[in-house]
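User: Could you go from structure to sequence for me? I need the amino acid at each position, not a summary. Structure tokens:
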């Protein structure tokens, strides 16, 4: 059965630099959170970009 996944994204750009934060939630309705490792509940992604 498919499960819903959602993301939230924020970014800040100044001159040639870009900082981005992305949060990806992957809730599991079939297993209690106590049995699911943290990496499978959500992901935090931080990236830094530079334009030449």
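Assistant: Here is the amino acid at each position, in order:
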């Amino acid at each position: 059965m498919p499960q819903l996944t959602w993301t939230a994204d924020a970014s800040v750009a100044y001159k040639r630099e870009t900082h981005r934060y992305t949060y990806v939630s992957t809730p599991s309705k079939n297993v209690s959170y106590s049995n699911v490792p943290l990496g499978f509940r959500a992901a935090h992604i931080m990236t830094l970009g530079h334009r030449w």
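One structural detail worth keeping in mind: The chain has a mean pLDDT of 81.
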